[in-house]
User: Which sequence fits this backbone?
């Protein structure tokens, strides 16, 4: 037997029972079929009711709602506690830093002077010359192929410190990038802070197997 449904106060159908179940009708859904005197709840039509899922007691829905409310409250309080602990940690860290600054400079309103800050930066730069020195350049062989002519540019990126007596290691390499020989040269010049200095170098090629040249700065002395 087929049944009709009400949708927006209009009768639709008819539908087979399996079709009604697929449409997701509930126990209280109104249905009507031929031979019925009036519209009735689906649960009151035996052959439809037998196909419907078990009806949950109303108390179960209420209990579920209460459980969900309890879970939500627990999560809310947990999030609030985490936020409070996080803000407390930030506050403690801030006051510890303030206290450290107070103790270091001898008073709440004291701070390092410009001269002290400059000295601190200069000390850091002098301790690590190779962190601020770099090289660029190019090279080519002479007409006889016995020497490399190198155009070298030493760059000093330090803000305050200058460096002198800069040593560069030149590496002669084969076409397979194997080091065949090396030589070190020291440039007795001063590379001032934030500047670059150019040099021209001629190097004898020690072996005919030499295919290319690499170089790197290995040492430098801070200038007082």
Assistant:
């Amino acid at each position: 037997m087929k049944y009709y449904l009400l949708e927006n106060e209009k009768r639709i159908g008819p539908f087979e029972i399996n079709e009604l179940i697929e449409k997701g009708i509930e126990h209280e859904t109104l249905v009507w079929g031929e031979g019925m005197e009036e519209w009735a709840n689906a649960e009151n039509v035996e052959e439809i009711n037998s196909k419907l899922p078990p009806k949950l007691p109303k108390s179960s829905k209420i209990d579920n709602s209460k459980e969900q409310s309890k879970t939500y409250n627990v999560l809310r309080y947990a999030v609030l506690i985490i936020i409070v602990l996080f803000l407390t940690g930030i506050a403690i860290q801030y006051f510890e830093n303030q206290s450290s600054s107070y103790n270091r400079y001898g008073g709440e309103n004291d701070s390092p002077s410009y001269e002290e800050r400059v000295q601190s930066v200069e000390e850091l730069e002098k301790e690590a010359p190779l962190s601020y020195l770099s090289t660029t350049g190019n090279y080519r062989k002479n007409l006889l192929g016995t020497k490399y002519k190198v155009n070298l540019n030493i760059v000093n990126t330090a803000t305050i410190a200058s460096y002198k007596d800069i040593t560069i290691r030149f590496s002669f390499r084969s076409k397979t990038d194997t080091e065949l020989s090396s030589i070190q040269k020291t440039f007795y010049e001063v590379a001032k802070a934030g500047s670059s200095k150019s040099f021209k170098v001629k190097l004898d090629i020690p072996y005919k197997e030499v295919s290319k040249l690499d170089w790197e700065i290995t040492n430098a002395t801070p200038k007082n």
Notes: The mean pLDDT is 88. The CA atoms of residues 135 and 154 lie 5 Å apart. The longest strand covers residues 179-191. The helical segments are 17-22, 46-49, 58-105, 114-127.
